[in-house]
Each structure stands twice: as C-alpha cells, then as structure tokens.
Design goal:
Length: 116
C-alpha cells in the first residue's frame, strides 16, 4: 500500500513544458502529453507494481487495456479489420499502418469500433 501511495504522489507532481504550456511532461522519461490524464496513465508504466497479470504467461501490466492488448498475442483475436481487404490485426496502429502502406489511404477508425 505504501509503494502505491508513493506512486500516486509522484503522479500528482505535474510538470508543464516550458516550451509549450499546453503539454504535460513525464518527470521520469521526458515524454510529452497533451492531456493530464494521458500523462497519469503513462506514469503507471514506470511503476514496479504490476496489478494485472497475464493468465497465459504471467507478464504483469499496470493497465487493463495493456493486458487485454497483450492477451491477443496468445489468443489470436484480431478485432481490427481492414475494410479494403481480408486482413485483420491485433492492434489499431497495425491496421492504420497497413491501410497507409498497402492501400495508400489514411484509415479513420470509428470510436465504437475500438477495443472489441
């Protein structure tokens, strides 16, 4: 519990970029974020506490979304389908990259289609 409290306190220490006051900067790795909530989510990756474990291989994650995405590597579930061909992907970024490289189009992904 104490380790978790220390992590939460560290996350509260917001560093705003001097170059761009609309950007939030990670104090650990200097990565920039446009929103405070995105920085807060990112800060979990620097924590040693891994609350969510993969039932297939035991790898730990700080976020349920990251665990769900990782689990697809074991299950073979490919929820991101190309509407121009028969290919499907485990991650949205892979679908977007495919659409641009293979079909030459920027894929716009509808919000309701994500995370199935």
């Amino acid at each position: 519990a104490n380790a978790r409290q220390r992590e939460e306190e560290k996350n509260k220490q917001v560093l705003v970029s001097e170059d761009d006051p609309t950007k939030f900067v990670c104090r650990v790795c200097s990565k920039n974020f446009s929103l405070q909530r995105l920085l807060n989510r990112h800060m979990k990756c620097h924590s040693d506490v891994k609350r969510y474990l993969c039932t297939f291989c035991g790898k730990g994650f700080n976020d349920t979304f990251d665990l769900k995405r990782h689990t697809r590597t074991h299950t073979g579930v490919r929820p991101y389908k190309c509407n121009l061909c028969e290919k499907s992907f485990t991650q949205r970024c892979s679908l977007e990259s495919h659409c641009l490289k293979v079909h030459g189009v920027q894929h716009t992904y509808a919000y309701k289609e994500r995370r199935t």
